[in-house]
């Protein structure tokens, strides 16, 4: 029987530097996997995408394991999308929403889960700037993501930094008109606060913005928060942590295979926790385009 080849792509700066320390613990237990394995340490943004693409082109591995956070996984899948090479995850980031979705634990339990992992085919989402796997959006949350990502201190504070970013953006943010097309049907929201779409259910470290979303149904889920005053928004926003915001009349849900989002004036766009170089979003589901190693039931 031919032994599988695994490549571990390690982002040492993920999770405010925690990834480097976690990797040292992971490394000592790799022999228990019973695989041929190699390691690549990223040195700059985009490095994980480059090595993933090269691995696919050279057929140099059967599995690429992302050691980092959701941003590291986002880079790796740019190279693995549509290939037969599977994605593995050793969580070492701040939010770790993708690990949470797949039921992957932290620490050495993640190594044990890899030992008996099964393969699942999941959907990706194609946009004008590559693919994403979890959640993307624009509006209030994207402004918060941009502010946090541009602040060394807020990034170091983890989830608390995100809360501080929310408080800061509440002082300046103004909702606006957003036109949204879902499988050809047009919806206009006159005073939208945020628009989130995607595959997964949580982002920003556990906020259940799309509580009913799944990565294996061939459709995208969409959530629009519209028509609220600032005090009303402040009352609703905490409910996102439990997913109970979806019962509010100002929260609108849609599902479809192709979704286009056009704000009246440019807003930042985020995907998998990364702020993207675009101001509108055209998204289409790509069914079953990624293989992921997941814990056995």
UniProtKB/TrEMBL annotation:
One of its GO terms (molecular function) is kinase activity. Keywords: ATP-binding, Kinase, Lipid biosynthesis, Lipid metabolism, Magnesium, Metal-binding, Nucleotide-binding, Phospholipid biosynthesis, Phospholipid metabolism, Transferase. Residues 1-130 form the DAGKc domain. One of its GO terms (biological process) is phospholipid biosynthetic process. Its cofactor is Mg(2+). It comes from the Bacteria. PROSITE patterns: DAGK. One of its GO terms (cellular component) is plasma membrane. Belongs to the diacylglycerol/lipid kinase family. This is DAGKc domain-containing protein. It comes from Kyrpidia spormannii.
């Amino acid at each position: 029987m031919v032994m599988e080849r695994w490549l571990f792509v390690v982002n040492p700066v993920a999770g405010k530097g925690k990834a480097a320390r976690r990797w040292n613990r992971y490394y000592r237990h790799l022999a228990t996997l019973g695989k041929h394995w190699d390691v690549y340490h990223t040195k700059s943004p985009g490095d994980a995408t480059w090595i993933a693409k090269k691995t696919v082109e050279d057929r140099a591995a059967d599995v690429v394991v992302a050691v980092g956070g959701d941003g590291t996984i986002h880079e790796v899948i740019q190279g693995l999308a549509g290939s037969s090479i599977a994605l593995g995850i050793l969580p070492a980031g701040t939010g770790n929403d993708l690990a949470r979705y797949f039921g992957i634990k932290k620490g050495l339990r993640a190594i044990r889960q890899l030992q008996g992992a099964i393969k699942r085919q999941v959907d990706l989402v194609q946009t004008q700037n590559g693919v994403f796997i979890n959640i993307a959006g624009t509006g209030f949350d994207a402004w918060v993501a941009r502010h946090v990502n541009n602040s060394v201190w807020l990034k170091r504070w983890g989830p608390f930094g995100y809360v501080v970013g929310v408080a800061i953006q509440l002082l300046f943010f103004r909702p606006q008109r957003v036109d949204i097309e879902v499988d050809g049907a047009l919806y206009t929201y006159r005073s939208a606060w945020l628009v989130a779409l995607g595959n997964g259910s949580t982002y920003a470290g556990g906020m259940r913005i799309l509580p009913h979303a799944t990565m294996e149904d061939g459709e995208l889920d969409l959530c629009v928060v519209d028509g609220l005053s600032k005090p009303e928004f402040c009352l609703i926003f905490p409910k996102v942590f439990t997913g109970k915001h979806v019962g509010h009349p100002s929260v609108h849900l849609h599902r479809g295979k192709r979704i286009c989002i056009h704000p009246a004036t440019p807003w930042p766009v985020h995907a998998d926790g990364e702020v993207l170089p675009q101001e509108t979003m055209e998204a289409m589901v790509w069914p079953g385009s990624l293989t992921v190693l997941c814990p056995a039931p």
